[in-house]
Amino acid sequence: MSILGGPGQPAYPPEELRKRYKEPTRSRIYVDRCVLIADCCLSLRSQRTKTTGYYYQTEADYLLESSYYHFILDSELMRPHLIFCKDKYDKEEKEEKTLEGYILEVFDPTLPRYRIKKRLGDYVKYLDEEDYTWHEETDTEKLPILLFVCPRTSDLIYAKRRTRKLIADAWEYKDDDEERPRIRFTTVEKMQQHGVLSEAIWEQA
Q: In this predicted structure, what is the pLDDT of residue 5?
């Protein structure tokens, strides 16, 4: 996997993007979410240097059998909209090392609270029960950071409160706080204004 050259991440012609944006069979909510994810990808690409960068795959990417994150499909617990990792190129060892992994999902404004609760529970369950899969497939020591983008501040408050309870229940008998999941929340408005990589917009559960 290479993050510096960005293989598997084609640059689509502007006319194709305009056509997709105006697709009449898609809802406005779907289009807005796709644009938000696209903005995230552009932000990740803009942060590349000669030695560090972000490798990412959208849902359409990791559905392919040849994709790096295709193993996510082995679990029925989650289908994130974007998965990315921060990599660093080690000049001495001449290899790339993953520093951190991220899994991002955008909650649609029409998503009812019970569905949000179910989604959060599934993600926490995945990290609790299938953490070894992530470690083996990505060759990283830490669990990925979960990022949830909420449509409104009220949804963020609800999601944070619910997630804290889920974490407390799942990790009640575990002594090592280092293994507890790192789950963060923001709103669509904040991410649109400051970008996905802005640490200031994310609130820890």
A: 37
DSSP state for residue 180 in the 8-state scheme: S
Give CA angle at 98 (93, 100), nearest 5°. 145
Q: Is residue 6's pLDDT more than 50? A: no
Q: How far apart are CA 66 and CA 143, in angstroms?
A: 23
**pTM for this structure?**
0.85
How far apart CA 184 and CA 19 sit, in angstroms, is 34
Q: List, for residues 32-47, the tens digit of each pLDDT value.
A: 999 999 999 999 999 9
Helix (H) or strand (E) holding 184: strand 183-187
DSSP code, position 102: E
Domain spans, the chain: 48-204
CA distance 14 to 26: 19
Per the structure block, which two tokens stand in for 103? 């899994």
Number of H helices, E strands in the chain: 7, 6
